[in-house]
Amino acid sequence: MAVFLRALTLLTLTAIITISWIIVTKQRYNLLPKYVYYQMSNMTTTKGTGSNRIIETAQPFTSFVQDAETCPNLSNVYNVSEIYLAFDNWHTVIDDLLYVYSAHVDPRHKDNSIIRIIGIISRHQLETTSPVYYCQMYFDGSENVSVIESVIYTIGEHRKPKFRMIELACNVSRDPWSLPPMLVSITTQTCAEPNNHLAVRQSYKNGFKTNFTLCLDGVLKHGTTKSSLIVEWIELNMLLGAEHIFVYNLSGSALLDPYLNYYERKGQLTILPWNIPIQFNEDLDEFGHDFHLVWNYAQTTAQNDCLYRNLFVARHLAYLDFDEFIIPQEVDVWNWNDMMEHAKHNCTNRPGSYVARNAFFLTNEINDSNVDEFNLTTALHTTMNDRLKKPGFRSKHILIPEHVRHVNIHYVEEYYDKSYSTCVVLPSVGHLHHYREFTKKGSKHTNLSALKYKPYLIRQIHHVYDEIK
């Protein structure tokens, strides 16, 4: 009888654990960011994910030109050449409601170009008031200002913070005799005098510059101070294929300046200011994030800015944080390019991005046999948790910018061309090495795939430190 009761108790506990796991998993899937589409001209809202997602309308935008008689406060007030402000800066449209960072020309549309303005918006305003915003476009040498109502795009984020990423899209004529605007301002009324001016980027004009460009997936903030970690991250990613790196600097330590400036002088690094004009709370989580205000310091905004900044500039774009590397697992494969060639053989679709599944490497366990003078993260920590996360959960990716409309933290949010989709890299070909303290129980093993880079890394880091002295 006692044996029967113990067996019954065990079965009951197993059932409870299984049901709990199903509920938690379902909740996690429900938390996946949802793509929200707002067509403001008719004030309708449609939401959806996957194949149900609604993309940019094919209907023509309503456009008109304001002149001195209609909007006297916009005519002859600005000399575009004189107010051609620095490209990269945050601007307030409406305090505590809408802030914008950058404007980019998207030339991929057949009949017209699109100006895409990247920023953050109050979640409450977006979801309750159906806001309308206009693009006032200023052309060099013209007294007229073209004014057009924007289409609003936004990407859902976890935990529902106060602010979320926004993109305002405005149509520009594809008249071969016309040039894109040099400046754009965002207003709530057609003739309102603007309090913001964004220089319009035309990054694509000079053609492709790199095969692989890397965007820091997140922002550089005060908690990152160890120069050896930054140098290892930069040098290993360049060994893997990165030719240029973009870093968004919120509050990086001055201790890192000599190293970041070194790579910037060499033309291998672009440091972008990320001075978001909002006051962060002191109530931060264990990683120093104020998730109640904005997700990871507007991470998805930085991601999509980096996407459009590299449209037709980089053939491939990787997104990685400082504790992450996408490492080929096959002995004879050393870089991303070869890894992706191998990955293609297992993908029947047309790859618009390559997703590397997440594997945790335990920083609380040290491989003493690999200690070196720089204490390389990738050499010291070779114990890997056996459980790889599913694609879309903590995964990171390398994408082809020209095929992508919007990007999210762990996957492509929307492809521009629906004939392209995601290619999941087999773990035997390559996966994400994610270095962090990991105390959960579970099986683990030693993975030495990153050690093949160690001799080259040590030599290159020596060179960097000698150059900076």
From TrEMBL:
It is found in: Membrane. InterPro entries: Glyco_transf_92. The keyword Phosphoprotein does not apply. Belongs to the glycosyltransferase 92 family. Its EC number is 2.4.1.-. Its main location: membrane. One of its GO terms (molecular function) is glycosyltransferase activity. Keywords: Glycosyltransferase, Membrane, Transferase, Transmembrane, Transmembrane helix. GO terms for cellular component: cytoplasm; membrane. This is Glycosyltransferase family 92 protein. The keyword Transcription regulation does not apply. It is a single-pass membrane protein. It holds the Pfam family Glyco_transf_92. It comes from the Eukaryota. The chain crosses the membrane at residues 6-24.
